[in-house]
Amino acid sequence: MSLSAQTTAADRDLFDAYNAEDMSIWKTYIDTAAVTPALLSYEYGYCGAMTDSKDSTALTYIQRFRRHIECLKDQLPAGHYEMYMSAVYVYELRLHASFHPVTAMTMAKEAVNKAPEDPMTICYYATALYYAPKAFGDKNKAKQLFEKAKEKFQTPAYLYSWWRPFCELHLSK
């Protein structure tokens, strides 16, 4: 089990907030929580939401996310460093703050290669393939990976993981 899959009361509250599309609760949590490997999952999701909404503070949060990833590098489950750093590169690209699409895709693939049974790395790589331009992406392979991740998310450890409905949402597209 990944460190990010450990269930807490905060996970339940954050899961409910995710389903209600209330990222203000996530912001409060991210702004006040201790820097732990579990926090990175929420920072990843929050930075993505901020990037999607073109929030003016997105880059500040992405830079903080990067510092936390580097700080926790040696404490992360296999593949999570690569997964989160890939996300940083994608978010920066979308905000025109840097241009590393090949590095982002390479790291996404490396994440799933290092942790091929981890539903988070599988789901992340599927997301990368799904949204990447045709030269890098593959929607059919992404759908297969989302299916694989969905199966692996069906354990009690992921009951309150926001990754589970995120993955399922992509299967309905």
Which features characterize this protein?
173 residues; mainly alpha; disordered N terminus
How does this structure look, described?
- α4 runs antiparallel to α5.
- The N terminus is likely disordered.
- The protein contains nine helices and no strands.
- With 173 residues, it is mainly alpha-helical.
- The radius of gyration is 15 Å and the shape is globular.
Question: Quick summary of this structure?
Answer:
The protein contains nine helices and no strands. It has 173 residues and is an all-alpha fold.
Q: How is the topology of this model organized?
A:
Elements: H1 9-19, H2 23-32, H3 37-52, H4 58-72, H5 80-94, H6 101-114, H7 119-131, H8 139-152, H9 163-171
Radius of gyration: 15 Å
Number of strands: 0
Give helix and strand order, one letter per element, not per position: HHHHHHHHH
Number of DSSP helical runs: 9
Broad structural category: mainly alpha
What fraction of the residues are assigned to beta strands by DSSP?
A: under 5%
Task: List low-pLDDT spans.
Answer: 1-6
Average pLDDT reading: 92
Describe the biggest sheet? none
Termini separation comes to: 28 Å
The residue fraction in helices comes out at 55-70%
Shape: globular
